[in-house]
């Protein structure tokens, strides 16, 4: 007899927080938060809950997403994806914008509609399609002070799918399982065996995060809390546990009747730090006395009893020979002009210099992808000759505008610069830099090493390894993770840097 199949958590490594999932027949679709990154809200597809491919993004057009000047971690919060009667719905919140919105599509790969803005001043909206034909909208809203980090409430209103708006009276259905609980959030409703089950999170999204459950015989309540709440948390396991901060969950059933939970958590390393951000994990759920029993969330677990369905593995190296950027590439905030090209010089990514730098709350000329592994190497080949003071292009590790590292060809030579709390420090320099240059970052845990080469394969270190523990939200605040990618900036927009290829690979056997 063959050994039972097992899977490894997280199922979506790197910054993929606030997962929401739905099933259509034998297909599963999942979305996650993206905050200030564009395109917004990646859409993933799976047939076995373990192997996922990215179909695209929900918000992939500038007209859909106003991230101009948005603060770090103040953009898109906590989407929910649902499917009903041939239509996919995503509700989400643009926190430093107009608030809640809904978009729809008949194909999860898109195109998705322009957003319809909804009433409400909270976060974490969700939709529930009842079996009587009625649809309900839930959200988290501050209870008294207007501050989301104070006591909050879960509110319920009816939702009109024809008009795409909330309607009818508000119902306060939950205020938390723990007295004076902070951030009761992420409300999702389900109907199981005739009862309405409310799954929410509380305790904040750091170490004390938790999943709690309530239920009712009527959708509008009253809801009784599970006497065993929280039904899932790792806060009692200590900060040295390999998986912490478990919460913000969504449930899904399989065609065979198994139940599973997707949720966020993060993996501390190098002490109580994590540069990867909050990631998407999977854990089984069973039901006892009408209550869900979940977890604990393990690094390796028995797989769902679904036929294994692997997708073709993505190449480690992008040669930029496709007509469009691969879906794993992102930009900071909404691009309002076309400063990148894959066609000006076929087989290259051309980045035009822009006056905005990575230190600005703007849309700099930067194309990056998530750091997804504790140990990784990222390399690129670049052609660029700086001519003016301020011209620079190269590779960058980016958490936000005040916390990042650049490895840049400049008019003064090759420079490695750390920006921490808005202050720049030159870590290393090399004065002689040719037009064609190879650049790289290599990480082993929190130790990062910058590398360069002036001819193929002749790699040299630039400076000593540096401590990367400032590139995390425990230090910098917010809810994101590190991106690694290519950038260009300078005063002459007619000038550009060409990147021949970019390669990202995990190291030391990390999957």
Notable traits:
1 helix, Glycoside hydrolase family 43 protein, 511 residues, mainly beta, glycosidase, Jelly Rolls, globular, 2 domains
Gross morphology: globular
CATH fold assignment of the largest domain: Tachylectin-2, Chain A
The residue fraction in helices comes out at under 10%
What is the architecture of the largest domain at the second tier of CATH?
Answer: 5 Propeller
- Provide the β-strand percentage band: over 45%
How far the N terminus sits from the C terminus, by CA atoms, comes to 26 Å
Mind summarizing the main beta sheet? 9 strands, antiparallel
What is the count of β-strands? 40
Offer a quick outline of the entry.
The chain has 511 residues and is an all-beta fold.
Please give a structural write-up.
- Belongs to the glycosyl hydrolase 43 family.
- Residues 317-505 form the Beta-xylosidase C-terminal Concanavalin A-like domain.
- GO terms for molecular function: hydrolase activity.
- InterPro entries: ConA-like_dom_sf (IPR013320), GH43_C2 (IPR041542), Glyco_hydro_43 (IPR006710), Glyco_hydro_beta-prop_sf (IPR023296), Glycosyl_Hydrlase_43 (IPR051795).
- It is a single chain.
- This protein has 511 residues and is mainly beta.
- It folds into two domains: 6-302, Glycosyl hydrolase domain, family 43 (Tachylectin-2, Chain A, 5 Propeller), CATH 2.115.10.20; 317-506, Sandwich (Jelly Rolls).
- Strand 2 (20-24) and strand 3 form a beta hairpin.
- The protein is built from one helix and 40 strands.
- Helices cover 1% and strands 48% of the residues.
- It is globular, with a radius of gyration of 23 Å.
- Strands 25, 27, 28, 30, 35, 36, 37, 38 and 40 form a nine-stranded antiparallel sheet that branches. A six-stranded antiparallel sheet has the order 29-39-31-32-33-34, with no helix packed on it.
